[in-house]
Design brief:
single chain; 200 residues
Length: 200
């Protein structure tokens, strides 16, 4: 029952986080696209696609990474090693956030942004609204974005599996910087557990 309760709490939390992040992504992308040319808009769409690929790669790496190498790094007091251990210990939730939350949001936002770019390009080329030419542009551009997304994620998954330790260690360094320099903690680092164990 406890595990079910934790699962429900995590599901509700991740749903709220997704709602907030989706709104932020949409607002930021709309702001960035407003008033720009179709070429710049295309670059923004590709940037959003790259964000989705990057987080998908990190999520897969988290599930593929082994915890042992990071313990060895932590014993040598390498920056980011403890954070990498925390990532691997919470791999399921970490991957859920990276792949399902950020990855899916990026896919949805990139699709919306692609539609905006198509409209801008169609207007510049003098195509009428809902014309056959605009439809053809929409199909072409959407297909290219989809191909780049799927192909990029396929390459990312291969890299994630082959270089999971190196990838998660770099992510651990980022979390270390956020914790030490900006006092932002996203993952449990085990300090409280150690304190409890020492008291026992």
């Amino acid at each position: 029952m406890k595990s079910l309760g934790k699962s429900i709490n995590w599901t509700l939390a991740i749903a709220v986080i997704t709602l907030v992040l989706a709104a932020i992504f949409s607002i930021v992308s709309t702001f960035m696209l407003s008033g720009v040319s179709w070429a710049v808009g295309m670059g923004i769409v590709l940037l959003i696609v790259l964000v989705g690929i990057l987080f998908d790669t990190i999520g897969v790496a988290a599930t593929a990474a082994d915890e042992k190498p990071f313990h060895a790094m932590a014993s040598e007091r390498l920056k980011g090693a403890k954070q990498a251990v925390a990532i691997t210990r919470n791999a399921d939730r970490f991957a859920n956030f990276c792949n399902d939350v950020i990855g899916d949001i990026s896919g949805i936002v990139s699709g919306t942004a692609a539609t905006y770019v198509v409209i801008q390009l169609a207007l510049q080329l003098g195509y009428g609204e809902n014309s056959g030419q605009q439809f053809a542009l929409s199909v072409l551009f959407t297909s290219v974005v989809a191909a780049l997304t799927v192909g990029g994620k396929a390459i990312g998954k291969t890299l994630a599996i082959e270089h999971s330790t190196a990838i998660i260690y770099q992510v651990g360094k980022v979390f270390y910087f956020l914790e030490e320099k900006m006092n932002i903690n996203f993952l449990p680092n085990g300090k409280k557990k150690k304190e409890k164990n020492s008291r026992k």
